[in-house]
Specification:
2 copies of one chain form a homodimer.
Chain A lengths: L3 H7 L18 E4 L2 E4 L4 E3 L3 H4 L3 E9 L2 E3 L1 H14 L8 H15 L4 E11 L11 E10 L6 H6 L1 E9 L16 H12 L4 E5 L5 E3 L4 E6 L2 E4 L8 H13 L3 E3 L4 H5 L3 E6 L3 E8 L2 E2 L7 H12 L7 E3 L4 H8 L1
Parallel strand pairs in A: 8-9, 8-15, 12-13
Antiparallel strand pairs in A: 1-2, 1-7, 4-5, 4-6, 5-17, 6-7, 9-10, 11-12, 11-14, 14-15, 15-16
């Protein structure tokens, strides 16, 4: 018989000092703890309350052709969210702006999806009291992504209405940008089950609320409307209001019923991830004449033109080497 | 004038290859990607949808005196959650049990808080479609923690009722253990503002739902009740049902109004993090005669006795060295 102590220890796996990570990460640069890092290093502890309690707020701004789009509005909303959650990131607005710019510049991306995050963090004394936590600020820039791919942009997205109810304002302030998405994920799987490409979920009154990461607009007889309540007040949503104001197009924030959606001449969705995107099918039925509508097309064109407008966008300084490699 | 290229590059921070992490972590062992790791290495990417969309489920079992408490019930609930979220962790129930046991054994903790997690993960192609994600299984064992500290266990917790409404079942299935906690965090800050130690939040009908990580029970004229709807079906809650069944104490799951709470002779809360814990103040008013009540005390005693009962608990095999160091 062998020594039972040896037998026992032989059965135990070793504790590996460093996690060996075989995952793939997008090209990009993150900022954390004063350090600029490759995306593969941008990780948070599983003990961070930002994960364990989804106790976090964030914002995502995009960069197009080397320019931030409406960065000020995103910073406004991010700092407003920090206040609502009583979080302190230890850096001011100017510093956040500088960090975001450095993430983009160091990444070399001319078109980027740029996220700023604050998590509750953890308590150094392992207390359960969130007031004792050291809040954690993270930022990163990765390649620009869109809800709709080029084919969907051309022929319009196919959406399905899920009976899932978006988390109501009495539970979580929808103007606080947050990661509570399981209702939207449920909606998405419901939509896939109906062979649709994305979903719309309901508000707590049974009207249309929003979709996974986007607001929705309907056009009927030249009038445009979008849900007022139980939705994130998206910056792209706001841009549609601003553009409609400039063009003199009638737009109002008011309840959008399922019937309104099904009777629409045009439907479009809005998100920082893709801008203004057409919808041409709802629950398998065609919207209007089945093509991307003229108002959707006009708004989309102006939305992208605004990306060169200094009133709506601001240039990023890139390292010279990066500019040169981009030219090459 | 100096060379503009040199001047420009000098202004740019370097990209650090490895994140330097100055945070403190509790003693413990985690499992991820087939590796057993110190808690400092148990991290997820900020791009993991488990973080970005709180698209994750989990369960927490505790170990007391070297024995798992009701592990089977926690595994049942965890695997049920995986099914509801259409996630696949790639290991079966027996393997999960073995991994949890190894995390505890390697940590050496005789009393531990043991968490099993599945996150949606990320898509290797960076698609936005959750069906393309590689789900991520993580487990860890850290020292046992409690909602109530020893002083609070003796004199009872002071709670405040927040007007925040727990996320309703129409939005997120409350039987799916999830990290959507911002409503509970809001409740907690509301409670702190009233000099209370923890919170109770309401259900969507205006009755009492639950608190941050716990269920609540009220005792009035010897009868016990606990909310039936809009609450997590806690394993400790279930244990109270089982113990009341054995003792022949009347207990029912039915609406608990704010008046019920304020008229209670005794109140207690239940959580894996602490077991059965007394509440002796609600909104600054004393509960019953201000002391921990006899039913609460009796149930708490039996709850802890059950931790030695083979029908309710199962022993963990520790490495011999660890057993010896514990004895020393």
């Amino acid at each position: 018989m062998s020594d039972p102590i040896v037998e026992s220890s032989a059965a135990w796996p070793e504790i590996v000092k460093r996690h060996k990570d075989a995952s793939t990460y997008p090209a990009g640069v993150a900022y954390m703890d004063g350090q600029y890092l490759p995306m593969s290093e941008a990780k948070i502890s599983v003990l961070d309350w930002g994960f364990l309690h989804s106790d976090a707020t964030y914002d995502t701004v995009h960069v197009w052709n080397g320019r931030f789009f409406r960065l000020d509005l995103h910073l406004d909303r991010f700092f407003s969210g920090l206040g609502k959650l009583r979080m302190d990131i230890g850096v001011d607005r100017r510093e956040v702006q500088s960090i975001l710019e450095k993430c983009v510049a160091l990444s070399g991306h001319r078109s980027a999806y740029v996220e700023m995050i604050c998590t509750r963090g953890t308590s150094p004394t392992f207390s359960r009291d969130p007031r004792n936590a050291v809040n954690r600020f993270i930022a990163f820039a990765v390649p620009f992504g869109s809800v709709a791919n080029p084919e969907q942009m051309k022929r319009g997205l196919h959406v399905a209405i899920s009976q899932t109810v978006r988390i109501p304002p009495a539970s979580i302030d929808p103007t606080l940008k947050n990661y509570h998405w399981l209702d939207l994920v449920k909606g998405l799987f419901d939509a896939y089950d109906q062979n649709a490409e994305t979903a719309l979920v309901l508000d707590y009154k049974g009207n249309i609320a929003e979709g996974p990461g986007f607001n929705v607009f309907v056009v009927r007889h030249g009038k445009i409307k979008t849900p007022a309540e139980n939705v994130l007040l998206g910056i792209t949503r706001r841009s549609v209001f601003d553009i409609c104001g400039e063009l003199g197009l009638p737009l109002s924030a008011e309840p959008v019923s399922i019937s309104d959606l099904k009777a629409a001449d045009e439907i479009f969705i809005t998100s920082t991830a893709g801008g203004i995107m057409p919808v041409t099918r709802v629950d398998g039925e065609v919207v209007g004449n089945a093509d991307v509508g003229p108002i959707t097309t006009r708004l989309t064109e102006i939305y992208w033109q605004k990306h060169e407008d200094p009133a709506w966008s601001s240039p990023i300084s890139y390292p010279v080497a990066s500019q040169e490699s981009e030219r090459a």
